[in-house]
Amino acid sequence: MARTVTVVVVGMLVAGAAAISMRSAFAQGAITADLILSKGKIVIVDDRFTIAQAVAIKGNRIVAVGANQEMDRLAAPNARRINLRGRTVIPGLIDNHNHLLRAATTWPLELRFDGVGTRKKAIEMIRARAKQVGPGQWVFNIGGWATAQFTDDPKPFTREELDQIAPDNPVALQESYYEVFLNSRGLKAFGIEPNAPDPSDFVKGSIMRDAAGKPTGVIRGDIAATRPVAARLPKVPPDRLEASALSLVKDMSRAGLTSFGVAGCNADVLDIFKTWKSQGRLDVRVFCITGAAAASPEQVDKSLQQIAQMKLYQGDEFIDDVVFGESVYTPLHDRMFATKSDPPADQLAQWRRMALGIAQAGLPLHVHAELTDTIDAFLDQIEAVNKQYPIKNLRWALAHVNQITPSQLERMRKLGMYAAVHPWAVINGGIMHDSFGDGAYDMPPLTTIQNSGITWGLGTDATAANQYLPFTTLAFAVTGKMAGGARTVIHQTVSRENALIAHTRKNAYFVFQENNLGSIQPGKLADLAVLDRDYLTIAADQIKDISPLMTIVDGRIVFDAEAGPSTR
């Protein structure tokens, strides 16, 4: 699929005499660069999936890509030169839907299992964290993993087992939004006692008990059942929030992630990011999925007034509000592990009122839609809205869409809609197969989505519903295997080229930055990731193991594995 390019310069972005003038300026040395990455494999991710040897950057923009010698000629006298030694460079990875800012309120306190492939390793991590934090302190996480990702032994954790591993600490391990495993100290901290009523804030029946009435240490249900656990767990205190946000951003840079569509832009964390941006040290781009969703018919009128006053695109290439979402009318918000839906007509009428206001205001939309019946019902409303206020150029998208069908994709194509695909099966494949049987092999139907002709992009819905590591997501899309790599959970996969396009260039559309991000092309912002192995040629089962060696954002090196830990 890929082809080799000799040189592409800034002049290629303009036409006619202007292009000739720019190429002449290039030949005369008028165009210079202050950072040259050469002797590598530059995966441009343009329409022809071009491959180059080197890339030249000036300030925060790419000025040229092409052959080594050509790029060397662009170097200014004090330019920094990086010999890639044959390594592969891809565009900075974009996650079109991630709860990034919310994660900052707990990130350094959590024991994250993202990418942990064995139960043995997870147990070692629990034991080490208990020793690190000391007796009486919580050992916990809030999703981002599931037991089925453990290739050695995918069984659930038991209360007795966790008591042995961390006898002096309360433990709460939240498996996605499905269940929570607690030890005895954790149960006691939550006020969950034998033969006693459940605490009032827990969903009835979600606290599992044995025949004698003793709590087993498992809380099970869905997001409503697990939410009281997260609400009771420690949060980062205000005076530590900036340090917490910094640790989160460092982990994102380490993963090769450079831009995010963020659902729920926590105001306190966003203020920190804005301060960093003003100081020139914000290392990720944040594009907020925001809005004024209504929760009841009484709230719809108020929400419609707010929608009419909404102004997007008041920020810049680092922080901006770009789309209305994630909910429109919150009673119609599919629960994560629900197996069917039947949206009531009265609730759909309120949903349509809201959608009509969004369309009338000319706003883009990014809305949570998971189950087949919900997607059909939403498309019915959108088609009705479209007759009054055409949405074709508003970039309306359905998000998650793990149970989408070919006919629904065709309806979306005719409406000019997008699909923000967030494959929950990356970690939840085992749970989904238990719930949906063989139907889960088409959740999501990536081949069908790819062949539908609509614009689609890959996201995660991290950090609770899913893991956040992009190469785990890419491996899933290419192999059909969930995190850990041992179990095939979907049959419809895509090529590694199309998967990468969906996580870069196509996602640039979802954050409204297609002219700035998503490919390594002249004139675009210099967001890049240098990889430790070649994404395009290694065995597909090794894609999940790729690690970025360097991440560049806005022309600045924000992560360098070979330079050691940063103190920024």
Question: How would you summarize the topology of this molecule?
Answer:
Elements lengths: L2 E2 L2 E3 L6 H12 L5 E6 L2 E3 L6 E3 L1 E5 L2 E6 L1 H5 L2 E9 L4 E4 L1 E6 L1 H4 L15 H15 L5 E4 L16 H7 L5 E5 L3 E4 L1 H6 L17 E3 L5 E6 L2 H10 L8 H14 L2 E7 L3 H12 L6 E6 L6 H13 L9 E8 L18 H16 L4 E5 L2 H17 L7 E5 L5 H10 L2 E4 L3 H12 L9 H6 L4 E3 L11 H10 L16 H8 L1 H6 L17 E4 L16 E6 L2 E5 L8
Parallel strand pairs: 1-5, 3-8, 4-9, 10-16, 11-12, 16-17, 17-18, 18-19, 19-20, 20-21, 21-22
Antiparallel strand pairs: 2-7, 3-6, 4-5, 6-7, 9-23, 12-13, 13-15, 14-15, 23-24, 24-25
Description of the structure:
With 568 residues, the chain is an alpha/beta fold. It contains 18 helices and 25 strands. It has an 8-stranded parallel β-sheet with strand order 10-16-17-18-19-20-21-22. A 7-stranded mixed β-sheet has the order 1-5-4-9-23-24-25, with helices on one face. Strand 14 and strand 15 (215-220) form a beta hairpin. Residues 10-25 have low confidence and may be disordered.
Primary descriptors:
568 residues; alpha/beta; eight-stranded parallel beta sheet; seven-stranded mixed beta sheet; 21% strand
